[in-house]
Amino acid sequence: MITLLFFAYLKDAIGTERLDVAHAPMTVGQLKRQLEADYNLDLRHVMVAVNEEYALEERTLQQGDIVAFIPPVSGG
Fold first, then answer.
1. What does the pLDDT read at residue 75?
2. Would you state the torsion angle of the CA atoms of residues 21, 12, 35, 58, taken in this order, to the nearest 10 degrees?
3. Percentage, residues of the chain above pLDDT 90
4. Residue 34 above 80 pLDDT?
């Protein structure tokens, strides 16, 4: 299993802050595209962290990884 964590508006868009998905050989970029298709999202500007370290789209996900989707934030 891979655990997906969603923050800010992504949590509302997906309907949960956490999903557990079956592990399949894929990269961070492939996972982002799958989520975009499944939930009609635009994740181009969303940062991704794997096991608490920012990850590039080419990173291959492994069994047991925790993947966090962190949208841009603004404030004042």
1. 65
2. -90
3. 89
4. yes
Query: Letter for the amino acid at 54?
Result: Y
Helix (H) or strand (E) holding 5, with range, is strand 2-6
DSSP code per residue over 9-71: HHHHHHTSSEEEE---S-BHHHHHHHHHHHHT---TT-EEEETTEE--TTPBP-TT-EEEEE-
Average pLDDT rounded to a whole number, residues 8-32: 93
* DSSP designation for 6: E
- Every domain of the chain and the residues it spans: 2-70
Mean pLDDT of the chain, nearest integer: 93
> Which residue, chain included where needed, has tokens 């509302």?
12
The CATH architecture one would assign to domain 2-70 is Roll (3.10)
